[in-house]
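Handout, section B. The chain below has 68 residues.
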Amino acid sequence: MMTLKLRKLFKSFRADESGAVTVDWVVLTAAIVGLGMVVMKTVGGGIEGLGNSIVSDLQGRASGYENQ
């Protein structure tokens, strides 16, 4: 009698798909965040070098208007 109840409970648990979409979204979001981290790690050095180049170029220029 007890095994019949457990078997019925297991079948209903196996057939229930109410949380499957949530799990899919969590996995998809984690994959997107992980991919973003990999891209930033790969491109980050170039972005930092370009930023430093822009800063040094702007520091060498005069700002404002000059009297002529």
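Note. The chain has a mean pLDDT of 85. Compare this with the example in section A.
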